[in-house]
Amino acid sequence: MSAGLEVADVFRRHGDTYRRAHDGHLGRVERRVMSAIALCRTAALGGHTERCEDCGLVRHAYNSCRNRHCPKCQGQARAAWLAARQAELLPVPYFHVVFTLPAPVAEIAFHNKETVYAILFRTAAETLRTIAADPRHLGAEIGLVAVLHTWGQNLHHHPHVHCVVPGGGPSLDGARWIACRPGFFLPVRVLSRLFRRLFLDALRAAFEAGELGFFGALGDLAQPTAFARRLRQLRRVAWVVYAKPPFGGPAQVLAYLGRYTHRVAIANARLVSLTDTKVGFRWKDYRRHGKVKLLTLDADEFIRRFLLHTLPDGFHRIRHYGFLANGHRAAKLALCRKLLDTPPPSPATEPDADTIVSAPCDRCPCCGGTMIPLGTLPRPQPGHPPFWQDSS
Q: Which residues does the chain have with pLDDT short of 70?
């Protein structure tokens, strides 16, 4: 089968089989994600008819599912989010720092997503802010945007947080702007050691508070002695904190954020083949300098890996800290601009068209003319779902 495939095609073709095979282990969130993606932009969600005012083409336009795990539904959310972020950019270098959980912690995280992912966010931000506030390193209050990704290129569970950080901040007394050294933000070895300590302390506190559950092969960790032994082992291994080179400027920061903030586990463009038993997709092997390879999985395994990355209801995968925290962002940014002697952004500022992915346009696919709505297309009556719809 040729390209042009979608994750939705996989769920429509193999979803029912997967549900039957894993009925006792498939949660409500996973079922809803499968159903939403399969129904996205189909007649099952209703829509409207529209006509081109130039060539007269009439077509059906169906509604989106708006599920945050759907590869087709991130464009509009991304555009709106970036429009707000552009007004917050400062005329300073920006750095990209990645905090990654070791595999033995990732195993615990998978069974305790809400608790452990929250610890990952909190301790990554605390690590950056603590080291940045230390006069031996920077001596400033910093701000950051943190984005959770839980996947690697081959769809295995690989939780990590991407942090985009301005290269400096107000001094601790708020009297001046302190910039980092050119091309260098904070020492990664120092960040790594503090991150490990803060995370493991928080994980131990969660265990003692009864907030962690252990299942299957991890069942023994429910015993305090086994859990303490696991923590000791984790304190002896290096934790990966990676700092990438600084961005070229605010425009590059916005372009980067547009690629990362609303990404899902796999984009439709990476799918290559779909058969009665297999799904093939492209992936980059970063251990081989990003070489592009083809991976073919059983459809059951592809769906399993995709669903590893569903998030609990209400869990925020984009978070702001320091002077970018939601509670005082406007006042803190005003102080930063004052210290940098830069004017506030114009209220009319719009995101650069090159840095965002817009929602589907209302232009005719044949001639480019304007599409005029004609009427609504209601959802099908209850009791008549498409064959792929989840009936649970």
A: 1-3, 347-361, 381-392
Rounded Cα distance, 35 and 8, in Å:
9
Name residue, tokens 């894993």. Answer: 22
pLDDT for the residue numbered 351 = 43
49 Cβ neighbours under 8 A, 6+ residues apart: 58, 59, 60, 61, 373, 374, 375, 377
Burial of 140 (0-12, 13-18, 19+ CB in 10 A): buried
User: Which residues have CB under 8 Å from 43's CB, separation 6+?
Assistant: 60, 62, 377, 380, 386
Are residues 191 and 97 in contact, defined by beta-carbon separation less than 8 angstroms? yes
Amino acid identity, residue 94?
Y
- Give the tens place of pLDDT for each residue, 145-187: 999 999 999 999 999 999 999 999 999 999 999 999 888 999 9
At residue 62, the pLDDT reads: 85
Q: Which of 265, 41, 57 is nearest to 153 (CA)?
A: 265
How far apart, in Å, are the Cα atoms of 203 and each of 128, 208, 318, 359?
A: 19, 9, 21, 40
CA distances from 22 to 8, 19, 33, 321, 351 (A): 19, 5, 15, 39, 44
Residues 81 and 351: their CA atoms lie apart, in Å, by 10
